[in-house]
Design brief:
The complex is a heterodimer of chains A (298) and B (339). By secondary structure, chain A is mainly alpha-helical. Chain A contains 14 helices and no strands. Chain A is globular and about 75 Å long. In chain B, 67% of the residues lie in helices and 0% in strands. The chains are: A mainly alpha (298), B mainly alpha (339).
C-alpha cells in the first residue's frame, strides 16, 4: 500500500469520527429538545406554587415536594376508573372479534374474504367526523336497557356501552388486518390435523390457532390500549355527563375546576399520561421493537 | 406446499381449499364469527357514512326524526362554498396542517431515522425519547402545551424569550390569530416527527445493505446512495407516510378542541362537530362538510388499500412481511388511529 493511500485512509477515518460525533450531538440534542416539554412539566410538577412564585418558572427550585401529585391524585381516580370501564371491555372484544374475522378470512377460502378484509381495513381509516352526525342522532334514539347502563335517558348516548361499541367498530378493522396476515403464516397442516382429529371450527380456533397468535395479540393489545385510552373524539361527542367521562377527554374540565395553578396542572397532566407512558416503557419491545424487528428480516 | 400434501394446479398455483367439505355446523359457526363483527361495522360505520351523504342534501335540523328531512339538493354545498365565512379559512388551515406536517416534521423524521439507523451509540434511548410524544394523546399534548408552554406568564415559551405580558413585545401564542395555528402545529409536529421516524426506521431496516455497499464501492457519495438506492427502496413506506399525513391533516381536531379553538384555528373537523355540539344545529350543513371530508379521504384510503393489498398479494407471506405490514398499519393508527 502506498504511503499516500494510507494517509488518505487515516484522513477518511478521522472525518468519519468527526461525522459520527456530529451525528451524536445532533440526535442527542433533538432527543433533549423533544423531551423538554415533558421534563419541564415534571420539574414544574415537583415544585410547590410558592417556590415558582419566588424563583420563577425557569429558576432553580429551593423546595421540591410531591404535594401537587397528591392533590391531583385526590381528584383523578374516578376518571381513571371510567377509562378502565371503557378500555378493557373494548380491548377484549376488539381482539376477539378481530381474531374471529381474521380466522375466517385467512384459514378458509370464501369468495367474500378479500372484499371483507378490504372493507374492514378501509373503515378504520375514515376520519371520525365523517360518521359522527348520524351516529350522534342515532345514539340519542337507540334504546339501551338500564342493566346495560342506559342511564337517565335510556339510550346509547352518554353510556359506557355506546362508547365501547364505537371503539369496537372502529378498532376491529386494524386488528383484523394484522391478525389475518399473521394467521396466514401459520402452516396449513394445522387445519388438516384438526380435521383428521374431528375437531370443529370452535375447538380448532380456540385451542390451536389463537394460542399461536399470542405474539401478535400481545403487540396489538399494547397498541390498542394506548389508542383507546387516548381517545378524545368519541367521548367528547357521545358523552355528556362530566362525571362519566374517561380521563383523557375529562382534562378539558379539569382546569379551573380542580387544578388551580400551573404546577398542579403539570402534575395532573403527567398523572393522566402515566398509564400510556408506563405501558410504552414497560412493553417497548412489543410496542416498537416488535413492530420494527420483523421488518429487518424482510 | 408439497410437504403439506396440497395439490398443485398445472399453472403452479395452489388449489383452493373447497369450503364444501365443511360440515354445516362449522359453516354456521364461521358465518357467525365473520357476521357479527361485520354487522357492527355495517351499523356503526357504513350506515352512518351513507346517512351523512344523504343528510348533506337535506335541510334537517335534528328534530322529528330523519324522515322529516326535506331534500334541498346542493344548497348546503352552495352555503359552504359561497356564504359561510368560516369555510374557506378552515379549508386553508387543514391544507396548511398537511403542508406543514409534510414539509417539516416528515423529512425531519426521515433524517432522524436515517441517522439512528447508522447504529450509533444510545440509539435506543434517543428513539424512546423522540417517540415518547406519540404515546401521549393529542388531547394531553394540547393540555400540556397550552398550560405549560404557551401560558402567557408562566409558560416556558414566554419565559425563555422574555415576552411575558409584562413585556412590551408580549406574544400571545394561542390568542393571536396570526400565529396561533403555527403554535398548535408546533405541538402537532412534535408528535408527528417521532411517529414518522419509527415508520422510516422500520423501512430502513428492510433496505438491502449489499446494494448500499455496492453503490458506495462504485464511488457514490452518501447523498447519492441515499437518493438513488435508499429512498427508492423506501417507496412502500413513503406511500404509507404520505397517506397517514393526509388523513392526519383531515382528522385534525383534538389538539385544537382542547385549546378551545380560538379564532384563527378553524378546521373542517371542528365545523362538523360544531353542527351537533355547537349553538347552531345545522345537521344538513354539517353533513355536507363531513361528506367533503369523506370524498377527500376516500381517494387516499383507496391509494393506501390498493398498495397495501397489492404488496400483500405479491409478498411471500413470510413472517417478516407480516411484521412489516404490522409496522405500517400500526403507524396508520398510531397517529391517532382512533385517537
Amino acid at each position: 500500500m502506498s504511503p499516500t493511500r494510507i494517509t488518505r485512509m487515516a484522513g477518511e477515518r478521522k472525518s468519519r469520527v468527526s461525522t459520527s460525533v456530529l451525528i451524536q450531538v445532533f440526535v442527542a440534542g433533538t432527543a433533549i429538545l423533544w423531551l423538554a416539554p415533558v421534563l419541564f412539566a415534571l420539574y414544574t410538577a415537583f415544585r410547590p406554587y410558592s417556590d415558582t412564585a419566588d424563583n420563577g418558572y425557569l429558576g432553580i427550585a429551593q423546595t421540591l415536594s410531591l404535594h401537587n401529585f397528591s392533590t391531583a391524585l385526590s381528584e383523578l381516580p374516578p376518571f381513571y376508573w371510567n377509562t378502565a370501564i371503557i378500555t378493557f371491555p373494548a380491548l377484549f372484544v376488539t381482539l376477539l372479534f378481530a381474531s374471529f374475522v381474521a380466522y375466517v378470512v385467512s384459514r378458509y377460502s370464501f369468495r367474500v374474504n378479500l372484499p371483507l378484509l378490504v372493507l374492514f381495513t378501509a373503515c378504520n381509516l375514515l376520519p371520525q367526523q365523517v360518521i359522527i352526525i348520524p351516529l350522534f342522532e342515532w345514539y340519542n334514539q337507540w334504546p339501551l336497557p338500564q342493566w346495560l347502563g342506559g342511564g337517565d335517558y335510556g339510550v346509547w348516548f352518554d353510556s359506557y356501552f355506546g362508547l365501547i361499541m364505537i371503539h369496537i367498530a372502529f378498532q376491529t378493522g386494524f386488528c383484523t388486518f394484522v391478525l389475518s396476515n399473521y394467521m396466514k403464516t401459520l402452516p396449513k397442516d394445522l387445519d388438516e390435523a384438526a380435521r383428521v382429529d374431528g375437531a370443529g371450527v370452535i375447538r380448532h380456533f380456540f385451542t390451536i390457532i389463537l394460542p399461536l397468535c399470542r405474539p401478535a395479540l400481545a403487540a396489538l393489545a399494547t397498541l390498542e390500549f394506548t389508542w383507546i385510552y387516548n381517545d378524545f373524539f368519541w367521548a367528547a361527542t357521545l358523552m355528556t355527563s362530566g362525571d362519566k367521562l374517561p380521563i383523557t377527554s375529562a382534562i378539558n374540565n379539569f382546569k379551573g375546576e380542580f387544578f388551580t395553578d400551573t404546577n398542579l396542572i403539570a402534575a395532573g397532566s403527567l398523572l393522566i399520561a402515566i398509564p400510556t407512558m408506563a405501558i410504552y416503557f414497560a412493553l417497548q419491545r412489543h410496542f416498537i421493537g416488535g413492530l420494527t424487528l420483523g421488518a429487518s428480516k424482510g | 406446499m408439497g410437504i403439506s400434501g396440497e395439490e398443485t394446479r398445472l399453472d403452479g398455483a395452489p388449489r383452493k381449499r373447497r369450503p364444501i367439505q365443511l360440515p354445516w355446523q362449522d359453516r354456521i359457526t364461521l358465518g357467525v364469527m365473520g357476521g357479527v363483527p361485520l354487522l357492527i361495522t355495517a351499523g356503526l360505520i357504513i350506515a352512518p357514512t351513507i346517512a351523512t351523504i344523504y343528510l348533506s342534501f337535506t335541510d334537517w335540523d335534528g328534530l322529528g326524526g330523519m324522515s322529516s328531512a326535506h331534500w334541498i339538493g346542493l344548497d348546503n354545498y352552495r352555503d359552504a362554498f359561497g356564504s359561510d365565512p368560516r369555510f374557506w379559512p378552515a379549508v386553508e388551515h387543514n391544507l396548511t396542517w398537511f403542508v406543514f406536517l409534510f414539509a417539516i416534521p416528515t423529512p425531519f423524521g426521515l433524517l432522524l431515522a436515517y441517522l439512528l439507523d447508522k447504529k450509533i451509540r444510545f440509539s435506543r434511548i434517543y428513539q424512546s425519547a423522540i417517540f415518547l410524544p406519540v404515546v401521549l394523546s393529542l388531547a394531553i399534548i394540547g393540555f400540556i402545551w397550552q398550560n405549560l408552554i404557551y401560558e402567557p406568564d408562566n409558560g416556558l415559551a414566554n419565559n425563555l424569550l422574555g415576552t411575558t405580558t409584562k413585556s412590551s413585545d408580549f406574544i400571545d401564542w394561542l390568542g393571536d390569530s396570526s400565529i396561533n395555528l403555527w403554535s398548535v402545529l408546533m405541538a402537532a409536529g412534535w408528535r408527528h416527527a417521532g411517529y414518522v421516524m419509527i415508520l422510516f426506521l422500520a423501512g430502513l431496516k428492510g433496505v438491502d445493505p449489499s446494494q448500499r455497499e455496492a453503490a458506495a464501492i462504485d464511488g457514490a457519495s452518501e447523498w447519492q446512495v441515499f437518493r438513488n438506492v435508499v429512498f427508492p427502496a423506501l417507496r412502500p413506506i413513503n406511500i404509507v407516510v404520505f397517506v397517514i399525513t393526509v388523513i392526519e391533516a383531515l382528522r385534525a381536531f383534538d389538539l385544537v378542541y382542547v385549546v378551545n379553538y380560538p379564532p384563527g384555528t378553524e378546521l373542517i373537523g371542528l365545523l362538523v362537530t360544531g353542527s351537533i355540539l355547537g349553538e347552531s344545529s345545522r345537521i344538513g350543513y354539517g353533513s355536507a362538510l363531513a361528506t367533503l371530508l369523506f370524498l377527500i379521504s376516500t381517494v387516499f384510503i383507496v391509494v393506501f388499500v390498493t398498495t397495501q393489498f397489492n404488496e400483500r398479494e405479491a409478498g411471500t407471506g413470510r413472517f417478516a412481511t407480516v411484521q412489516k405490514f404490522m409496522a405500517a398499519f400500526s403507524s396508520a393508527r398510531l397517529r391517532g388511529g382512533n385517537r
